[in-house]
What does this fold into?
Amino acid sequence: MALTKSLIKQPSAWLPIAMSFTALTLTIGYLAIFGIAQPPPEDEGTAAHLFQLLMGGQVPIIAFLAIKWFPQKPKQSLLILALQFVATLLAFTPVYFLEL
It folds into this structure.
């Protein structure tokens, strides 16, 4: 377990998780302030664009983690990749269920 702690300290491990939770917080904050617009506006707005940048920006970071750390620490990197996947699913949950 000590190896997992050392791997989670790497920016390529924790940064995508932080980005997913930032995107989730952004979505929840936007919904708390503005609610769900009916009908949806033509332009997605700043919050949607930031969400897209945060989620899309994770892809190269996750790829770097997989390329660099998987050969060295396969078990720990799979655990980190699973955490990143769960964090990504959590960020997309309100978007999917609320059809934003």
About this structure: Residues 46-100 form one domain. The chain is about 80% helix and 0% strand.
